[in-house]
User: Fold this.
Amino acid sequence: MARIRCSDVGKSYGSTRVISGFDLEVADHEFVVFLGPSGCGKSTILRMIAGLEEISEGTVSIDGIVVNELEPRERGVAMVFQNYALYPHMTIRDNIAFGLRRMRVPALEIDDRIAEAAELLGLEPYLERRPAELSGGQQQRAAIARAIVKTPRVFLFDEPLSNLDAKLRNHMRVEIARLHQRLRTTTIYVTHDQLEAMTLADRIVLLNAGRVEQVGRPEEIYERPTSLFVAGFIGSPAMNFIDVTVERDGAGWALASDLTTFRIGGSGFDLQPGCRAVLGVRPADLRLTTPDTKANILAGTADLIEFHGDGVLVTFAHGDREVSALVSAGNAPAARSHVRFALAEDRIHLFGADHGRTLRRRPAAEPAAIDFAGIEPAGIEPAEVETVVGLRIA
Assistant:
């Protein structure tokens, strides 16, 4: 398989700089997801790795070989696009075989590879059909099969599920996860959907305006966001934010908002008296409480009750901010009723108001990174393959 190294990679279009100083190492067999809002540069970076975009500065290497000047077909990667990029006049069998025939692979070997990929992705009944006769999910499976049969060293997925409805997206997401478990091919996957990122990734690279905000395991990014941007982007429903002023309070600290003061020990944060901060708390971490509880309370009138199945999202005003709390459906308050929620110190986040970075102290020993080097691939040997160049529909 392959290791990928991006070193100080940048991209400019004339005087407009869209990617700056991008550094990343992707381990052999690893599944990395580029996540971020539209326009953050995630697809541009993917296309530079594939060779479909010129690299303005820095280097991209695959297995230690710098590939900046190599043609896409020489890089050992296969790319799956958002729009499937299937030839409409060809059968699914011919679409899957197209790249292999250009590589002059023997006909019997092509048939064997197609049969294996079709069985893996459940495409056997559709091989003689044309793309227009298939559903969106079936077409996307065909596009993935075309990539698989080339036995690439690297899979690149560019928002492959964006054109599917919610049910098909969930189904295909599970199929891609199972496919990676079986093939263990080094994979980079681009999406703006945080559910895809959180469920598929070994690591997430969260991008914002062409720069990396945070890299880490899904649970690490969710539990320990390093910036306001990360905290606000990751999590559904979104994290609540309250502006506070930090002051000393005996041996602890007081976080004063416009309406109330929260008191914490503060041992897990780097705080300075008089500094402005933003307190963050996820809706699921707020707990309904009784009038007897006086400390660290957010209270207000429930002006919106949203049913989410087994949970209910309660929205109320705290000064000029809306606050949301996620409670079980059985504990749902009535609309326009007075609600009170308690904050636990071990579930809050604090960010500097001026720089937006976390004020949380780093733990004494960070958990060791996952080492993928010793994992053996399951049955696929690397080969010289080409990307699906020229098939992308603008």
Notes: The longest strand covers residues 16-26. Residues 217 and 369 are 9 Å apart (CA to CA).
